[in-house]
Amino acid sequence: MTAEGAETVDGAPPVLAEVVRSGFVESRHRGSLVVLAADGSVELALGDVTTPVFPRSSNKPMQAAGVLRAGLDLTGERLAIAAASHSGELFHRDLVRRLLSEHGLDAGQLQCPPDLPLDPVEQETYLASGAVRDRIAMNCSGKHTAMLAASALRGWPLESYLNPEHPLQKLIHRVVEEVSGEQVAAVGTDGCGAPLMAISLTGLARAFRFFVLAAPGSPERRVADAMRAYPEYVAGTRRPDTWLMRAVPGLLSKMGAEAVQAVALPDGRALAFKVEDGAGRALGPVLRRALDLMDVPTGGLLGKAAVLGGGREVGEIRAVF
């Protein structure tokens, strides 16, 4: 596997994507990307793929595996939304409410911040109905509900479920290290308030590979299977993770904030990348190109990243490796 045009200059990560307007390159997005072969070896590395990064929501499958290891019995769409950055669509909000009720919890116990639906179309409908920012609408509410439910099941404190020293968070920490094959380099606070574990892009790709190859019935495989069976609960009806998991048999995909993406295929191949400046607009073109290099057909699933001028298409954001 080879990639052209992605060279590191003076220690800076290579350019992974560029923004072309009216035939003129006006912006460039640098980053790092790793592709693992089916046997787990590094097949392609662009930039620095060994220095730790915050995977942001690409950590969510590991957090969901942690709540299963704690003894919480989630299946189907309930397990998928525990690993979700959901769009805040009505079916997402309804499921979170049901999960809270089923485990004797209420929305007031959630410690994720009140927010609007992540999906812009849903957000307009939500606001037009007179609704306001709400914890259940926040894209991480499914994960927080699962964390609360696991803590309640084990008799662990609920008010401190986001403390890195909480028993559940320490268990998740161990899961991250086990599946990534490396020690957590740093612990931060994610946008939703949950502890966030830093690992390398190579470790992130190894973690996703671990999930798709795990033994059937294991916590990791159960998470992977639920995400792939109910991808609309992992993301939403208008999201690339959903489209990919629906269209490519056995593919596991999860994006993270600040332009992080991880993908694994059922044969053990995997990829992970981060756009250095955190620009989400570069995610689609970079992901499309990486999957093309892996001979994974995406067709028009990811769409064209058009650049507009005066309401019409005048250019595009394109991968350059």
Write up this protein.
With 321 residues, the protein is an alpha+beta fold. The chain is 36% helix and 20% strand. The chain contains eleven helices and eleven strands. The protein has helices spanning 60-69, 76-82, 90-102, 120-128, 141-154, 167-180, 201-213, 219-229, 231-234, 240-247, 283-293; strands at residues 15-21, 24-36, 42-46, 52-53, 186-189, 195-200, 252-256, 260-264, 270-275, 306-309, 312-319. Strands 1, 2, 3, 7, 8, 9, 10 and 11 form an eight-stranded antiparallel beta sheet that branches. The protein is globular, with a radius of gyration of 19 Å. It starts with 14 loop residues before the first strand and ends with a strand.
Write the topology of this structure.
Elements: E1 15-21, E2 24-36, E3 42-46, E4 52-53, H1 60-69, H2 76-82, H3 90-102, H4 120-128, H5 141-154, H6 167-180, E5 186-189, E6 195-200, H7 201-213, H8 219-229, H9 231-234, H10 240-247, E7 252-256, E8 260-264, E9 270-275, H11 283-293, E10 306-309, E11 312-319
Helix pairs in contact: 1-5, 1-6, 1-8, 2-5, 2-8, 3-5, 6-7, 7-8
